[in-house]
Amino acid sequence: MTDLLPLTPDELLTTTRAVRKRLDLSRPVPVEVVREALAVALQAPSGSNRQRWHWIVLTDPAVKATVAKYYQQAYSAYSQAQVYPPDSTAARVASSASYLSEILAEVPVLVIGAIEAGELPDGNQAGVWGSLLPAAWSLALALRARGLGTTWTTLHLQYEHEVAAALGIPSQVRQGVLLPVAYTKGTDFRPAGRIDLESVVHLNGW
Questions:
Q1: Which residues pair with 174 in a beta bridge?
Q2: N or C terminus: which one in the chain shows less Cβ crowding within 10 Å?
Q3: Three-point CA angle 7, 41, 177, nearest 5°
Q4: Is 44 inside a domain boundary?
Q5: 104-137: pLDDT as tens digits
Q6: What is the CATH number of the domain that holds 139?
Q7: Rounded to 5 degrees, what are φ and ψ at 101?
């Protein structure tokens, strides 16, 4: 088993950050480490314990390049529609996201989280995604504990059907998240600033 970082549960939860510029593109990631983290992630809950999730792990450079191409196309359209004040947190995040779009194909491993769902229901879809996304976040936590980082990305979903065709994903399997995985440059991540708790907590009603 891979050695784990000496993090308390609260430290793990508060320092698992969106990592882009600190992904180490030069250090290989053994597939067994990713499988180990996925085995932890599969302990997450799913509706009726059906566990209908699937994890497409991409290591082949040509395959990663195909997915990266669609991601870059989606990011290009997205970024052109955004205007941020200079030196704002949003501007820094945008710079980081732009970097990721440029180097995505070079990230050692890409993991697509997907779920058997067929046609998505009209209205609230929490029942579908609530059976996938907790496990995807558990994967991010398990990776962090092992000295790896990732970031939550969904832009490629604008080209979900094209990516599915390229990867041979069946039509009844819907993609929900793309996680680029690499060792991080250092492991000294800190909690991020967040809005005041009292502004978002509602006791006994709104």
A1: 115
A2: C
A3: 110
A4: no
A5: 999 999 999 999 998 898 999 999 999 999 999 9
A6: 3.40.109.10
A7: -60, -30
